[in-house]
Design brief:
This protein is mainly alpha-helical. The longest helix is centred in the C-terminal third of the chain and has 40 residues. The N and C termini lie far apart (about 100 Å).
């Protein structure tokens, strides 16, 4: 099973970074633009081979074959290494002509994006094949780059996952310190990994009974705050980590803060939580407290922007129909508040009806009083009859 390819297909949002307007007059690149958008996988592969027949140095065609035609990670890695050689040649060639106009500059930027994309895929192959140090080195080198594709590919998250797999927690903490900034985009990987690393120091000794008696110390408070922060960002993750909700394979594309992201995170990171003794127990004891801290109404948010209301609909499109999509937990109002609200509403309705239809409501009220008093009248008659019989019996004895 470990030899089966586990690289997701290319995200359509990457296409504008891997394609370029300067390719409009090149037949092989026009074929590839159509191939990336083709829904039939057989036709996509056929188009990639056609593009390679026209131009054997078409790197994007090799990328498609590595992701669509290759059946094992080893085979995909072999194709990607061929693509890497071509991409490096194309990058060096365009580097010398990038200042000759906007089209030449855009083509150079495209060649750089293709080079980065291929290196990332090779690092993912190395990670799946167990060469973790090699994968970490590639991800570190790539994370130093600054083009726009870096924010799309989330290479720092790939680096975090690799370091967690190596159990290099100190290095992982250093990466988080750089990217877990309030001004940078967040993800379940960043928020929950931050909570996991903080939990390492207290999880093995944490006891909810002892904590409830003596209170939380400083380290435990920091861990609980980190868990609450992570749960507020994506509240669907804990149920998958605690295995109280069934897993399915992660979807091809995910939505930040949605059930699809929670599935993908838990699927690949559950073992990291299990490697830290007591971390899941600490999560189990503390995660539900997040919803008591959130303001009401939820539109105001707390640490992050308000939870998007459209997330559930988008997740239903991304996830299979048989999967029960997790929704944002709603606060439950106390019974006393519900009872009071119902009583007030009923009283207001009676007052309105009495004002509008006084005669009819008077008759209804009279009938209701008669029906309500009827059991008491029967009880009164029984008591009087019994009392009278007992009284006459006592008199006869005298």
């Amino acid at each position: 099973m470990s030899n089966i390819i586990h690289i997701s297909k290319i995200n359509p949002s990457y296409l504008k970074l891997l394609l370029n307007l300067g390719d409009a007059r090149k037949e092989e690149y026009e074929i590839m633009q159509t191939a990336w958008r083709e829904r039939n996988p057989v036709q996509r592969i056929k188009s990639a081979h056609t593009a390679l027949e026209i131009n054997p140095e078409c790197a994007s065609a090799y990328i498609l074959l590595a992701e669509e035609e290759a059946t094992t990670i080893t085979e995909a890695e072999k194709i990607l290494k061929t693509a890497l050689k071509i991409a490096e040649i194309n990058y060096r060639r365009s580097q010398t002509t990038q200042h000759q106009g906007p089209i030449a500059e855009a083509m150079h930027r495209r060649d750089l994006n293709v080079l980065i994309y291929i290196k990332r895929r090779l690092a993912m192959c190395a990670r799946k094949l167990g060469r973790l140090k090699e994968a970490a080195k590639i991800f570190r080198d790539l994370s130093k780059e600054v083009p726009s594709i870096m924010n799309v590919l989330n290479i720092h998250e790939n680096l975090i996952e690799t370091l967690l797999e190596m159990q290099a927690y100190a290095d992982c903490q250093a990466v988080l310190a750089k990217y877990d900034d309030i001004s940078l985009p967040k993800s379940a990987t960043i928020c929950y990994t931050s909570a996991l690393l903080k939990a390492r120091s207290v999880a093995d000794k944490f006891s909810p009974d002892i904590a409830s008696k003596r209170g939380l110390n400083t380290n435990e408070c920091n861990v609980v705050e980190a868990i609450h922060r992570a749960v507020e960002f994506n509240p669907h993750v804990p149920k998958y980590l605690l295995e109280t909700k069934p897993f399915i394979l992660p979807p091809e594309h995910i939505l930040k803060r949605g059930d699809s992201e929670a599935l993908a995170y838990a699927f690949f990171h559950l073992r990291h939580w299990k490697n830290v003794e007591g971390a899941l127990n600490l999560l189990h004891c503390t995660w539900e407290g997040t919803f008591r801290m959130l303001p009401s109404p939820l539109e105001r948010g707390h640490l992050f922007y308000p939870y998007p209301t459209c997330t559930e609909c988008a997740d239903r499109e991304l996830l299979p129909a048989f999967h029960e999509v997790s929704v944002y937990p709603k606060k439950e109002l106390p019974f006393f508040i519900l009872f009071t609200a119902g009583l007030c509403s009923f009283t207001a309705l009676l007052a309105l009806l009495t004002h509008q239809y006084p005669d009819s409501m008077g008759k209804v009220a009279h009938s209701c009083l008669i029906y309500m008093a009827y059991p008491f009248i029967l009880l009164k008659e029984r008591i009087e009859a019994l009392w009278q019989c007992n009284f006459m019996h006592q008199m006869t004895r005298v």
